[in-house]
Amino acid sequence: MDTDFVARQQSRLLGELSDFLAIPSVSALPAHAADCRRAAEWLRAELSRLGCPAVQLIEGDGHPVVWAEGPAVPGRPTLLIYGHYDVQPPDPLDEWTSPPFEPTVRDGRLYARGAADDKGQVFCLLKAYEATLDADRRPPLNVHFIFEGEEECGGHVISDLLRAEPERTRADAALVCDMSYYAPGWPAVYTALRGLCYAEISVRTLERDLHSGTYGGVAPNAIETLVRILAGLKDESGEILIPKLYKSVEPPSKEELRVWKKLPFDKADFLRDEVTGQALTGRKEYSIFERVWALPTFEIHGIKGGFVGEGAKTVIPAQATAKVSLRLVPGQDYAKVGRLLERAVAALAPRWADVKVTLLHGGDPVQVDVDHPAFALLDEAFASVTGRKAVRVRAGGSIPIIPELGLTGAPVLLSGIGLPDDGLHSPNEKLDLAQLWSGIEIFGRFYELLAERGGPTAPPPA
Amino acid sequence: MDTDFVARQQSRLLGELSDFLAIPSVSALPAHAADCRRAAEWLRAELSRLGCPAVQLIEGDGHPVVWAEGPAVPGRPTLLIYGHYDVQPPDPLDEWTSPPFEPTVRDGRLYARGAADDKGQVFCLLKAYEATLDADRRPPLNVHFIFEGEEECGGHVISDLLRAEPERTRADAALVCDMSYYAPGWPAVYTALRGLCYAEISVRTLERDLHSGTYGGVAPNAIETLVRILAGLKDESGEILIPKLYKSVEPPSKEELRVWKKLPFDKADFLRDEVTGQALTGRKEYSIFERVWALPTFEIHGIKGGFVGEGAKTVIPAQATAKVSLRLVPGQDYAKVGRLLERAVAALAPRWADVKVTLLHGGDPVQVDVDHPAFALLDEAFASVTGRKAVRVRAGGSIPIIPELGLTGAPVLLSGIGLPDDGLHSPNEKLDLAQLWSGIEIFGRFYELLAERGGPTAPPPA
């Protein structure tokens, strides 16, 4: 590996990453479909430049999957690298200090939508690959790249692809760099991710909005009805009131609980700097780690209905809608939870309302067996650069495709170079440049360790 | 009165009214301030054309009040005519069959925002006045016109004016034509109106939106907090849970309840044609008339928060807002009710949220003494055209200025030519043209009856 790679080329690297981040590849918004394609094309060009023959854009019912294979290195293991080039919508726009798609460096941090989630991390893995190319531009091992454009919107182009061609996941290890350090100086690998069940609940009580004077007292109000249903799905203590929801939840292992208890954690800092709130919520009988890593949640993401313009309008609204989701933990199944949600909403729906639950997308929770030898190699790579092995934690978030990446038995290494205050999905998302530069070295080293000691080559695709 | 007035001039009248309705005088939306002024100017020109000397646009902190006095008719009584030239916002626009500010006749009905509330009715009173002008264009009695532009938005230009110059309300009777028939063929006068207390409730739980995976389980969700507060303000049976709210409510009189029991009413028709819903809500221990006329209500008019775009975004929202109002009944006071609401919300606010109640506007409920002889004259006018006297009912709606129109003791006649299915505040608001044409005759006759038998002239303004 070229250990001076970063030192010599920081300004080129920063320019390239800024170009990638400037593409507003917001997968959830149809108006940005062409931008998503531009981001995929950016990756295609980059992978070609890095020497991958025949980079593919694989089309489906949505944004394309980018697939590439580095030059074959016989006798060496195969690493599958996953990432996503799509980003979350940037709103609320007025809370960004610099515009979300005009990458800007302030105090050693690069601010842009996607800086940490996940374009900056995809970029880190690509540059680590570039740094390990030899004088003939050959990598130390077989690397397959798969980058999707629908991680943030629940599309299924990648999962359709892997269902049709599961051999694409045949590898000695899969690396997913969409996560963060546990804390500055504390690299992490993840033993579990929560799953997701995302839905829209819509209520109609009238054919048309009515005058609240003339009909107030007898006409059913759609917002009020929706509000009462939502309030009936979770109580103030944080307990979700969907019957049978907790039944299949598997509690964390004793070993996990032991490790979590020893993690450095300052509740006051967490509340002030990360949550930016006045008090925490949730089930007090569980620790904070258990609440965010090992318990399901129910959140309302958005709500609208009636008159929300300036001033006052006295209508009884005919319809109202909310977007909600549940995070799921090992033991739970997102299709089953979707049915439990539908049933719970139906039970709360009064006779005066048409109430509809539309399941928008979801993914099962993930549990990773971190005993595979590849994890020790990743530890070694982290330790060589940061002085510390990766701590075993969980994540509250979800990457729906993870179970499918492990289809053919490759261990899935969930890790990353983000920091907890990166502001994923929030205004002013950022990536610390020091994390990027050290990350390129860490993952370059990991590729080399895996090349040397990563076990037998996976058999070639059938 | 020129009894052929309408028959000869329908097409001119329809053209004039359409011009008036085409002005989008939406008082609640700052972008339409110039349109409100155009509507006021339209009235100024019309009143001048009708022979009123020195029409005034009285300015204040909002949209102007239009004031005019017909030529003085010594020895005859004075009638004060009130109406409003502003209209409700037209949204949801996509539910209109023809655009709200392109007046369109279909099946004998004129569709436009403001057709019934209140421009069409203001127009009816002006044309009734025109029809009673003699060959020298002199009216049969003294008429003072006061038209405001803030009835729908809670502005206070008119109330500031009347507080400063209460003598403007000195009259033998005040006529407010902003109401509807009880049913087709059943003209009505109103013995009470509900008051209004309109407020915005806003909740902030975080400085910024958070990722629902990373922080779901411990971070307070602003929408969830708002939803729980709203659900805590009213139960599913329709009982409002604001402490002490019902304490001062005065029940309707036995005579009122007796009249209401005999009104023609078909609950199935009401539900299907007017409410356009599947079932009624509200307090089952009271009749429908009591629920809409004699009990306070709490309604949520609009709600917003978080991500409401297309697709899925997994944020924990930092803030959320709802617009709400209470309708008030005789015995209640809007300022006091505002304080009760603030207190109830504060009691429901959890420690993790900043919850703010902003009182936007309001008005006290109205009770009218319908024993004054002017009501018998209005009955006579109605009977002469429709064959039926005006039935005594209440209205669930509010006209905040009414108490102030009666400042100097003039009886306030609340009546109108609308029909219950006019769709006030809704898409496809309309006015039946047959109601307009007969209304011009009815009110022309009322002016003449009042001129002949309406008692002594009010003393001239001091």
Report on this model:
- The structure is a homodimer of 462-residue chains.
- The first copy, chain A, is built from 13 helices and 18 strands.
- Chain A is α+β, with helices and mostly antiparallel strands and 462 residues long.
- Chain A folds into two domains: 5-193 and 365-453, Aminopeptidase; 195-249 and 296-363, Alpha-Beta Plaits, CATH 3.30.70.360.
- The first copy, chain A, has a six-stranded mixed beta sheet with strand order 1-2-6-3-7-17, with helices on both faces. Chain A has a four-stranded antiparallel beta sheet with strand order 11-13-9-14.
- In chain A, a hairpin with a 2-residue loop joins strand 4 and strand 5.
- The two termini of chain A are 32 Å apart.
- Mean pLDDT of chain A is 94; it is low at 458-462.
- Chains A and B meet through strand 10, helix 5, helix 6, helix 9 and strand 11 of A and strand 10, helix 5, helix 6, helix 9 and strand 11 of B.
- Strand 11 (297-306) of chain A pairs antiparallel with strand 11 (297-306) of chain B, so a sheet runs across the interface.
Compact description:
By secondary structure, the first copy, chain A, is an alpha+beta fold. Helix content of chain A is 32%, strand content 21%.
What is the typical, i.e. mean, pLDDT of chain A? 94
Strand order of the largest sheet of chain A: 1-2-6-3-7-17
Helix count of chain A, per DSSP?
13
Please identify, by name, the CATH architecture of the largest domain in chain A: 3-Layer(aba) Sandwich
The CATH homologous superfamily of the largest domain in chain A is termed: Zn peptidases
- What overall geometry of chain A do the principal axes of the alpha carbons give? globular
Counted up, domains of chain A total 2
Rg of chain A to the nearest angstrom?
Answer: 23 Å
Largest interface: A-B, 101 and 101 residues
Distance between the termini of chain A: 32 Å
Reported for the largest beta sheet of chain A, the result is:
6 strands, mixed
CATH topology of the largest domain in chain A: Aminopeptidase
What is the CATH level 1 assignment of the largest domain in chain A? Alpha Beta
Oligomer: homodimer
Query: What structural class do helix, strand and pairing data of chain A support?
Result: alpha+beta
Strand content of chain A: 15-25%
Low-confidence parts of chain A: 458-462
